[in-house]
Amino acid sequence: MTIPRSHPRYESLVRRERLVRAWREGVVVPEGLIAHGRGEAWDYLFGEGTSAPALVAERAAAAHLLAASRPVISVNGNVAALAAREVVQLARAIPARIEVNLFHRTESRVKKIIRILERAGARDILGLRPNARIPGIESKRALSHRDGIFRADVVLVPLEDGDRAEALVRMGKVVISVDLNPLSRTSQRATIPIVDELTRAILNTKKFVEELKENPEEAARVRRAYRRSGNLGAVYSFLEWRLGSLRRGLVRGEKRPRAPKRTRATRRHRQ
Ligand code: PTJ
Questions:
Q1: Distances from the Cα of 165 to the Cα of 91, 144, 222, 259, angstroms
Q2: Which of 76, 101, 225, 253, CA to CA, is 20 to 30 A from 186?
Q3: 15: CA distance to ligand 1 center in Å?
């Protein structure tokens, strides 16, 4: 199906199509489609745009990625389907390593995702031959690389599950999550939770990386100034404001349909 660019929800519909295509190709698992639907619902509530608090978190994330000695970006099926090119550009700008890490891990999926990332320009992607385990996780997500997530000091984990985000924080890492659900365990546990749509979040973070690279003092100030609880609080306030304006819009802004004018014909019909 070709979606007209003029469609008010063009970006969102394109993302949905990409996800479905990637699912048909075996890159995304069925659970990934369900996760995407949840993300879409949240994005709808947020107005399908980046909120001011999300921008603050993205700037803080950029500042931390720049200060890291071993920054790593974790990629799963949904991330590869939606934002492979953006992830590769961000990794290059920092620079950071990319590791494929899957919840529903099969060797064939890892290979497919590595191929997608290579086509987007990435090299030396980790993930195929993991040589370490993240302590405290039973699932295959524990499998990791010593040169990658296992020894990283700052990890960007888009569309993560709560268990691993928690385990990575326990290992003493700065964990940057991207999850549209501000109530998820991932958002609650990450050091810097970014509550924004993945593609927008990665593009914004890259833009901030490029800006802060030129200004290390400002980057240090941004790192000092960021407060996760204050930022998450601002996300909730933003959501409250959005719902409030939707409510007011329904009552005041949008005109209620008026009762049709009574003509002789309708009067006759009613009798
Ligand atoms: O590829 P695999 O095998 O590693 O599996 C990946 C999934 C996504 C299936 C796995 O990580 C998973 O089950 O994740 P969860 O626990 O469902 O969490 C995904 C979270 O991402 C949910 O809170 C969604 O609201 C959110 N989300 C979905 N799409 C987006 C999103 N957040 C930001 N941008 C999106 N496009």
A1: 20, 14, 23, 55
A2: 225
A3: 14
Beta bridge partners of 178: 158, 194
CB under 8 A, 24+ apart: contacts of 237-241:
238/46, 238/51, 238/52, 238/53, 239/45, 239/46, 239/182
Distance 36 CA to ligand 1 centre (A): 6
Answer whether 202 contacts ligand 1 (Cβ < 6 A).
no
Residue with tokens 């004018």: 261
Position 237, amino acid: S
The pLDDT confidence band at residue 262, using thresholds 50, 70 and 90, is low
Predicted local distance difference test score (pLDDT) of residue 9? 83
166 C-beta closer than 6 A to ligand 1 = no
Strands 132-133 and 143-144: antiparallel
Distance CA 222, CA 235 (A): 18
For residue 260, the 8-state DSSP code is P
Query: Burial of 61 by CB count in 10 Å (0-12 exposed, 13-18 middle, 19+ buried)?
Result: buried
In single-letter form, the type of residue at position 188 comes to: Q
Q: Where does 71-173 show beta strands of DSSP type E?
A: 71-75, 97-100, 132-133, 143-144, 154-158
Q: Please state whether beta strands 132-133 and 174-178 pair in parallel, antiparallel, or not at all (unpaired).
A: unpaired
| Ligand 1 neighbour 179 (Cβ under 6 A) | yes
Q: pLDDT per residue over 72-101, tens digit each?
A: 999 999 999 999 999 999 999 999 999 999
**In which band, very low, low, confident or very high, does the pLDDT at 248 lie, cut at 50, 70 and 90?**
confident
In one-letter notation, the amino acid at residue 258 is: R
pLDDT of residue 1: 65
To 10 degrees, what angle do helices 228-248 and 30-46 make? 70
Q: What is the pLDDT of residue 4?
A: 80
